[in-house]
Amino acid sequence: MEEMAKITIGDETFELPVIVGTEGERAIDIQSLRKRTGLITYDPGFNNTGSCKSAITFMDGENGVLRYRGIPVEQLAEKSTFVETAYLLINGRLPEQKELTRFSVLLNDHSMVHEDMRTFFENFPRGAHPMGILSAMVNALRFFYPQLEGLSETEELDIIVTRLISKVRTMAAMSYKISLGHKVVYPKPDLCYCANFLNMMFDSPVKPYNLDPDFIRALNVLWILHGDHEQNCSTSAVRLVGSARVNLYASISAGISALWGRLHGGANQAVIRMMEEIHAAGGDVKPFVARARDKNDNFRLMGFGHSVYKTYDPRAKIIKKMADTVQAKLDKSDPLLDIARELEEVALKDPYFIDHNLYPNVDFYSGIVMRAMGIPTEMFTVMFAIGRLPGWIAQWKECFDSPRWKLSRPRQIYIGNNVRDYTPIEARTKTML
Ligand code: CMC
Fold it and tell me: Active site: which residues (predicted)?
């Protein structure tokens, strides 16, 4: 029998259905609440609101669990590749060999970027943040590649999806090369997705880049771990913007803009800036931890805390181990890794951090790994965006395939003026404005 929740307002009681997910998560379905009671619900930031039913990603914030399509991220990080995981997220299951080959071929076929788009990169002001550039460029893809006539809906979607995944990687590397004033390196068909990215970033006519299998593997793992994270801020932006029936490129562009923020994906850049500051101040982490718990200081320990995880982020555990592996490849160890380790140790023993359930999140160690690979700090959030792209696409596709994709339209509790008359300008006093 369906479980019901009872809500009493005044002397009337209403029953609302309780819906249960496949992992036993329960939610009160309030869709009929307004019609029956005249009331809406109030949940700033939607932190306790299920905005959709989704079959893509499962998270258990209390126990630090993360699964894509049912498969634990730990297994994917150990055994899968980024391309295979992207297929899994988007299509709902692991590919057979021939499906994976076709997906990889499509990714290769669409990896070039229209030459006219290069002039865009060259005309952004020097120092423009790569996330702003990426968001603009992804939106512009719509105008450069409108020709899909004659294809079935599924073929069209396959092409748009692979085009996006492939071109975003090429554009990211291209924008880096152009920012240096260097010649752009084109994608090579014989390299896999991750190797191609590293090659486009670091190869040059004067200094050929040696592809290191450990770095290629580390990049696969990093992007797998960023693949999806259910209804986070940028994914919700993709779904919300898409619900107005705008094209996929525009929806993803909105996701990239949301991810840029320092409380979200931009935290990976902010973490390294914070650690550089600690390093410059002599390396003592304690004053920074003290500032983070001081309510009169709006400083936060970047890379710590999460809206859903109230324990160690499972992604951070894997990335922390990976930081050691990639560091071992360097001639000189990164002093920021020592600072990160110490900061973690001090914060995890601090009563404020214990009481608030604040643990390292995905961004805490990812910057250390990317630094070791030679990725510049300004590009960190772009790296996050490349990894998150399959998740955004999967979430958008889930909406697109749904027969009842509703226009997102949250409500509010109005707290402004009650009705009042317009006052002519000559009669206005400050209190009337
Ligand atoms: N340092 C110090 N205090 C913190 C921190 C932190 N990093 N994070 C949360 N708090 C405190 C906050 O001050 C508040 O305290 P109180 O209840 O005493 O006023 C309490 O914890 C709850 O914080 P909130 O912002 O109201 O709620 P939240 O749990 O939704 O915050 C967060 C999540 C990610 C915005 C926050 O932890 C934060 O700002 N962290 C630093 C930025 C960061 O690392 N972001 C990356 C998130 S993971 C990658 C991603 O998915 O985007």
Answer: 306, 363
Does residue 169 share a domain with residue 277?
no
C-alpha angle 103/106/107, rounded to 5°?
A: 85
Calculate how far, in angstroms, residue 319's C-alpha sits from the geometric centre of ligand 1.
20
Please return the burial class of 97, using the count of CB atoms within 10 Å of its CB with bins 0-12, 13-18 and 19+: exposed
pTM of the model: 0.95
Judge whether 355 counts as a catalytic residue.
no
Domain match, 163 and 47 both: no
pLDDT tens-digit profile of 224-281? 999 999 999 999 999 999 999 998 899 999 999 999 999 999 999 999 999 999 999 9
Token pair belonging to 187: 């994608």
Q: Is the pLDDT reported for residue 178 higher than 90? A: no
Is the CB of 289 inside a 6 Å radius of any atom of ligand 1?
no
Quote the mean pLDDT of the chain.
93
Q: For residues 174-188, give the mean pLDDT.
A: 88
Report the separation in Å between the CA atom of 333 and the middle of ligand 1, taken as the mean of its atom positions.
Answer: 30
Domain span holding position 368? 267-372
- Ligand 1: nearest atom to the Cα of 45: 30
**What total of structural domains would you count in the chain?**
3
**How far is the C-alpha of 28 from the C-alpha of 283, rounded, in Å?**
49
Q: Is the CB of 305 within 6 Å of ligand 1?
A: yes
Pocket test for ligand 1, best of 257, 288, 307, 388 (most atoms within 8 A of CB): 307
Nearest CA to ligand 1 atom 42: 263
Residues 112, 243, single domain; the answer is: yes
Residue 151 has pLDDT above 60, yes or no: no
Q: At what angle do helices 335-349 and 314-327 cross, to 10 degrees?
A: 150
3-state secondary structure of 407: coil
The pLDDT assigned to 181 comes to 83
Q: How far is the CA of 305 from the centre of ligand 1 (A)?
A: 5
45 and 93, same structural domain? no
pLDDT-derived band at 37 (thresholds 50, 70, 90) equals very high
Residues 101 and 211 in one domain: yes
Q: Confirm or reject: Cβ of 226 under 6 Å from ligand 1.
A: no
Catalytic residue from among 203, 228, 306, 313: 306
For residue 54, the CA-to-ligand 1 centroid distance in Å is 25
Distance 354 CA to ligand 1 centre (A): 13
Active site (annotated) includes residue 129: no
Count of beta carbons in the 10 Å neighbourhood of residue 60: 16
* Residue 413 maps to a domain: no
pLDDT at site 204: 93
Which of the four pLDDT bands, split at 50, 70 and 90, describes residue 432?
A: low
Relative to beta strand 65-68, strand 71-72 is: antiparallel
